[in-house]
Specification:
The protein is mainly α and about 60 residues long. It contains three helices and no strands. It has one domain (about 10-55). The protein is about 75% helix and about 0% strand. It starts with 9 loop residues before the first helix and ends with a helix.
């Protein structure tokens, strides 16, 4: 793991919280990790539509 043992990453924090049966903390941490990825996915979906990419292929 990068930065171990001095840096506590978000994944380690989530694992530690779920291991100690603090499931509400682990679920909130999972949502915090999911939301930026979903936003990036929606942004890239709009950016890379097939119609826009087909425009680049024309001579």
């Amino acid at each position: 793991m990068a930065g171990a043992p001095f840096i506590t990453t978000l994944a380690v924090c989530m694992y530690t919280a779920s291991f100690g049966y603090a499931l509400h903390v682990a679920s909130i941490t999972a949502l915090v990790r999911t939301v930026p990825g979903a936003i990036l996915l929606l942004f890239l979906e709009r950016l890379l539509k097939a119609e826009y990419l087909a425009f680049l292929d024309q001579p």
